[in-house]
From TrEMBL:
Residues annotated as signal peptide: 1-18
Organismal lineage: Eukaryota, Fungi, Dikarya, Basidiomycota, Agaricomycotina
Name under which the protein is recorded: tripeptidyl-peptidase II
Single Gene Ontology MF annotation: metal ion binding
Cofactor names: Ca(2+)
Catalysed reaction equations from the record: Release of an N-terminal tripeptide from a polypeptide
Active site per the UniProt annotation: 294, 298, 486
Domain Peptidase S53: 218-568
Protein residues bound to Ca(2+): 528-529, 547, 549
Amino acid sequence: MLHTGLTVLAACFALAQCTPARRAMRTLESRAAPPSGFVHSGPASSSTVLHLRMALVPNDIAGLEEALYSVSTPSSPRYGQHLSKQEVEQFVAPKADSVAAVNSWLAEHSINATTLTPAGDWLSFSATVKQASALLDADFAVFTHEETGETFVRTLSYGIPADLSGHVELVHPTLSFSIPRRSGSAFHAVQPVQSSPVKRSAAVGDATTPAACASPTPIRPKCLQELYSIPTALAKSSSNHLGVIGYNDNSANLDDLQLFLTNFRPDLNPSTTFTLDSVDGGTNPQDPSDSTGETNFDTQYTVGLASGVPAHFIQVGEESGHDAWLDTVNYLLSQSAPPQVVTTSYAEAEDNVSQAYATKICSMYMQLGARGTSMLFASGDSGVGQGSCKQFVATFPNHCPYVTSVGATTGFAPETGATLTTGGFSTYFNVTQYQNQSVQAYLSKLGSEYSGLFNKFGRGFPDVSTQGVKVEYFWRGAEWLFTGTSVASPIFASIIALINDELITAGKSPLGFLNPWLYSTAASAFTDITSGNNPGCGTNGFPAEVGWDPVTGLGTPNYAKLRTAAGL
C-alpha cells in the first residue's frame, strides 16, 4: 500500500494535475460591498490573468515606529539621527520562516513569486482567476465604475491558510478599487479646479495685504514670498533635493516652465529645470497637448519657489495601473538617497482602498520618514464630501499618520480657510500622540455637532495650509489660474526644502518626518487661521477655530519663524 501511494503521488506530480491538499482557511480581508460608484457586473472569467502582490509581515514594525518618533521628535536625544536604508530594511524584512512558508504554499498551487522590494516584504506573482480563487478561497468578479465604464476584477473577501497567520499581511489588489483616472489627474479627490485665462480687476487691495498680493495682481511667487517671508536667495546645498510626483503619464512642459520663470522669477536663470525620474515607464513628452495644469503647476511652483533646490519630477506611467501608490513608494525606498521632501497632489476616497492596504502603504511612508524624507500630500478638494453622505469623507493617503497633509486658504489680512479643502478625521487611523492634544481641544469646542458623521477618535487632517485659490501659472503658453489643495502642497514643500537647504548647509540633518516638530516646537511658527469652513454632505462642514482645526490645520507658515524653530 505504501509503495502504491508513493507511485500515485509521483505520477500526480509528473502530470501536474494534483489538487493541493485542502488547508483550513481564515478570512484575511473582507468588505460588505464595493465602494460607492462601483457595481457588480458578473463573475470574472476563470482564464483571466491577475497580477497580484503579497505583503509579508515585517519582523519589527513597532520597532521602526519607535525609531521614527525617536529621530523625529525635537525633545528626543536621537532627534535628526535618521536611519540608513539598510537599517530601515532590517526592521521591515520578513522572518525567514515566513518567506519559506509562503513560498511553499504558493508552490502547492504551481505559483512562483518574485521579490518586489529590497527588504523582501512584498512578493509579486501572476495567477489566473481559477488559480487565485483556489489559492485565496475567493470569488473574483467583474466590477464596473458607473461613471467611466472602467472594469475591475476584484473580490469582496479572501483568505489564507490558518497556519500562515502572522506571515501574510494582505494580497493586492483584491478589495481595493482605485477611482479611474480623470482628465489631468490620476485620482479624483484632488483633481484641479481651473478657471478661464486670467481676468484682472481694478479693485484696490487691503492696506494690510502684502504689496505683491494687492489686487489686481493675481497670486504669484512674489506674493507668496512676501506673505510667508520666503527667501529669494539661491539654495546652496547640492545634496538637498525636492521631489514632485506626477501620475497618469501627464507631462510637465519645459517651455511653460521657462515662461513662468521669465515672467514671475526674473532673478532666476530661465533655463532652470527639473530632473525627470521615471516609474513604470513614465515619460515627459513635450507636445503641449500632453501637459496638464496639475503637472505644470506643481513643477513651476517648486522650481520657482524653492530657489535653486534641485527638483525631480517623478513621473509614474500608466503601466502602474492600480498599483500607483505602491509602485511610487517602492521606487522612493529603492533609492540610496531619496529626495528630502516629496510632494503629491493626488488622492482618493479612503473607502476605495482596503484598510490593510492603506496601513501597509502608510508603513512604507514611515520608512521614508525614518530615513529623513518629508512626505507631503494635498488634502483634497471635496470639503467633507459630495452629495448626501452617511459619513463625512476622508481621503487617502493624506490622512496617513506618517505624512503631512496640506489644506488651502484664500484671501488676505487675514487669510481664511478655503471651502474646498477636504479635512476631517480618518476612519482607518487613530489620532496620533503628536496631535492628540490639539485634536481634543478642537473636539471639545465642536461638541456634539455632526455626531455620528465622523470618527471622533481618528487622525485629524490637514496639518497645515497655504494659499490655494486662483494662483497664477503657465499652461500651453498662456497664463491661467489654478485652485485647489494641489496648489498648497507644492508651495509648502518648497518652504520645507529651503529650510532643509539651510540646515544641510549648516552641517545639520534635514527635518525628515515633520509632524512631531510641527505640533510642538514649530507650532508657534504658523499664523492661526480662525475663519472658514469646508461644506459638503448637505452641511456647512467643520468650522475653523483658534488652534488646530480640520480646515486649515495649524495655519499658514512664517518662514522666518520656521527657521528659528528648526534651530537656525
